[in-house]
Structures are given as structure tokens and as C-alpha cells.
Amino acid sequence: MNYGQAIEAMKRGGFVIRPQNTRRKIRLAHIGTPLQYFEVVSDDERQPYVPTTDDQLADDWFEVISASNLIAAIEEAWGLAA
Fold first, then answer.
1. Residue 67: pLDDT above 70?
2. For the whole prediction, is pTM greater than 0.85?
3. What's the mean per-residue pLDDT of the chain?
4. What is the C-alpha to C-alpha distance for residues 17 and 21, in angstroms, rounded to an integer?
5. Can you give the pLDDT at residue 2?
6. How far is 74 from 63, CA to CA, in rounded Å?
7. What residues are paired with 39 via a beta bridge?
8. What's residue 4's pLDDT?
9. What is the pLDDT of residue 75?
10. CA angle (45 as vertex; 77, 6 as ends), nearest 5
11. Which of 13, 23, 26, 28 has its CA at 20 to 30 Å from residue 36's CA atom?
12. 63 phi and psi angles, rounded to 5 deg
């Protein structure tokens, strides 16, 4: 997917990555509030993400966790699945 599609995936609550750095997942933090910003989440850090020109022109973005899959996994783990 391209950068615009990655942003749309993040707006739906998903996490996206680029292949050269799969440990750093990027998401949109505080969706729908004035504090909304891109955030990098990895094993040991959470910090604001500022996309480079290369990131913005890339077409190798991947959604790794979608909001609906995350919710389904949580419901299954807690025994709430229908």
C-alpha cells in the first residue's frame, strides 16, 4: 500500500510498518482528539513519528494489525467471543 492508504489504515485503528524496519510499528495516537499524532511503537519505545520524504513516496507499507482483528483477539482471549 502507499502512504495515503497507510494513513487510512491508521485512521481505522491499525498499525502499519515498512519492510526495512518491522520492529517499529506506526499508529495514529489519540484518534479523534486535538492530541492526534503519529506514534512509533516498538519493544522499548513510544515516540512521535515524523515521516521522511522516502516514507511518503514509498509504496511498500503493510498493515500488520487491524482494529477489527485486534478487537476479535481481545474478545477471544477474554472469553467474550460469540
1. no
2. no
3. 86
4. 7
5. 96
6. 18
7. 27, 48
8. 95
9. 72
10. 70
11. 23
12. -85, 120
